[in-house]
Amino acid sequence: MSGLPTRDFAAFLFDMDGTVLDSIAVANKVWTRWAEGHGLDPAPLLAVMHGVQAVQTIRRFAPAGADIDAEFAALTQAEIDEAEGTQPIPGARAFLASLPADRWAIVTSAPRILALPPARSGGLAGSGRADRRR
């Protein structure tokens, strides 16, 4: 095979975590604190929570009678407060800067309010878009 095939694309969609940003350390820190605050061992939770919507993880692990909405709001705020710990994947910033700003977007299952601070702290603000998957 001689070289890579060439193709034209109208636009690009990128998942947030593990593609353009690395917020794993932040998520692990926040979820560990949440689990320990409820007297839970964080290890089983951390083993299954990545790639799963937060509210589903809360429903699975929260103690009986927990206010799921309040827990979700508190966790979301904790992740926003820790957004500075989010780092761009090496090379992501330069790669995205090479694309037309109106031809790429970050898509994620995270709520928009949670997706924007990591994008900003990762140096990706002002380019592309951040929208929630439907």
Element-by-element helix/strand order: EEHHHHEHEHE
Helix content: 40-55%
Biggest sheet, open or closed, and with what strands and sense? 3 strands, parallel
Q: Cα-atom Rg, whole angstroms? A: 17 Å
Q: Which spans of ≥5 residues are poorly predicted at pLDDT below 50?
A: 126-134
* Main sheet: strand order: 1-4-5
Structural class: alpha/beta
* Terminal Cα span: 39 Å
Shape assignment: elongated
Can you walk through the features of this model?
- The chain has 134 residues and is of the alpha/beta class.
- Helix content is 44%, strand content 12%.
- It has 6 helices and 5 strands, in the order E-E-H-H-H-H-E-H-E-H-E.
- It has helices spanning 24-37, 42-48, 54-61, 68-81, 92-97, 112-121; strands at residues 12-15, 21-22, 87-88, 104-108, 130-132.
